[in-house]
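Q: I'm writing a short explainer about pantoate--beta-alanine ligase (AMP-forming) for a general audience and would like to include a description of its predicted shape. Could you first generate the structure from this sequence?
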Amino acid sequence: MLVINSASELDKLVFGFKRNNDSIAFVPTMGNLHDGHLNLIRIAHQQAPIIIVSIFVNPLQFNQTEDLVNYPRTLKNDIQYCENNNVDILFVPSVNDIYPEGSEASRVELPELSFLSNTLEGKARPGHFSGVITVVKKLFELVNPDVAIFGEKDFQQLLIIRKMVEVLKFGVKIISSETIREKSGLAMSSRNTNLSLEERHKAALILNVLKSIRQKIISGEQEFNAMTTAGILELTHSGFQVDYLVVCDCDNLQMSSGNNNNARVILIAVWLSDIRLIDNLRIE
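A: Of course. Here's the predicted structure. Afterward I'll give you a sentence or two in plain language.
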């Protein structure tokens, strides 16, 4: 496995792969790799002979400097993790490599995506998704992948990236991976390392609430607001602060009602102590 830090060195390698007609599967990450990332890498191996993983903690998608500073960084372990899982290239660029003109000066805004990027996570974290769009666009330009794999845990992000690819006409296929969970049911996340053992067990309630709402909807109940309100109360009484708990249509994240047969998704964001956790559960 090659560990590459410079964009120019990566460009030379990608040029050689393309010249040899070797397709590339790409897994972009912010590091602190876990079994959720492993599943992305496994899918990548099914899609292409060349596997490129990136590790870049993107400053543009953090609303608070403290959150950026405290984001867990475990590069030594991540390198070993990628090597053990037969990654060909690990790309670990600096901020200057990704944003040579400066990060804010590089920020990309796509009005065509505003209906997806200004709600839920976008409303709670202003500028977050323009930061995601900016870095994914830049990484796609550098890596030139044939396939890119993203996790469904970040459901809204996945929809936005799919739409970005469509709007910007990138020739990359986006494949999603199901949410990988800890034994308790907590969705795997790099931020989970900041939770105490007690908090990890407590966080299992998130999935229980999602499953309860899904079961009620499958059973034919249509009072979605009553269901989500009850879920918010349960979580609040257990010490969570809830940013949102909603039932949306899968394709556009519009608030869903019981009057259509659209595929739906239940989306949630909560704070437990000072750690923000997101999750979702699809209803199809």
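A: For your explainer, you could say: The domain at 2-177 is CATH 3.40.50.620 (Rossmann fold).
Q: Perfect, that's easy to follow.
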